Amino acid sequence: MLIDFSKIEEVCVPNFKGGEKELLKKAYADGRNCIMLDRLMPGASIGRHTHETNSEIMYIVSGTATFTVGDTVETVQAGQCHYCPKGGTHMLQNRGEEPLVFFAVVTEQ
């Protein structure tokens, strides 16, 4: 199945999961999985949240992501991936000077 993000409308989600500013989101969902191509502008964030029934894989397309996992801070560059397993808690910030673009897959388990 082809998912063409160029044909999916981008939606602006303010303060996603309690974060700062806006998440710009293109998403395909089938009820069990959500596949997204998202952007965070400089200074924007996704708030701390727990994946109680699913896991998330986030591949950084461009920019630099700062993830906080518990007390650990991870810097993830373009070409690298962050994984949050079921039961895991994380948050994401764009502390850089350019937009952060990432591809994310959330799968229900």
Main features:
109 residues, mainly beta, Jelly Rolls, 6-stranded antiparallel sheet, 4-stranded antiparallel sheet, 10 strands, 60% strand, globular, Cupin domain-containing protein, metal-binding, RmlC-like_jellyroll, RmlC_Cupin_sf
Structure description:
The chain is an all-beta fold. It has a single domain (11-108), classed as Jelly Rolls. Helix content is 0%, strand content 60%. The chain has strands spanning 11-14, 22-29, 33-40, 45-50, 54-62, 64-69, 72-77, 81-84, 89-93, 100-108. The strands form two sheets. Strands 1-2-3-10-5-8 form a six-stranded antiparallel beta sheet, with no helix packed on it. A four-stranded antiparallel beta sheet has the order 4-9-6-7, with no helix packed on it. The model has no long low-confidence stretch (mean pLDDT 97).
- Helix tally equals 0
Number of domains: 1
The CATH topology is what?
Jelly Rolls
Shape: globular
Beta content:
over 45%
Order of helices and strands: EEEEEEEEEE
The parts where pLDDT drops under 50 for at least 5 residues are none
Number of strands: 10
Which strands sit side by side, in order, in the main sheet? 1-2-3-10-5-8
Largest sheet: number of strands, sense, barrel closure: 6 strands, antiparallel
Classified in CATH, the superfamily is Jelly Rolls
Radius of gyration, in Å, reads: 13 Å
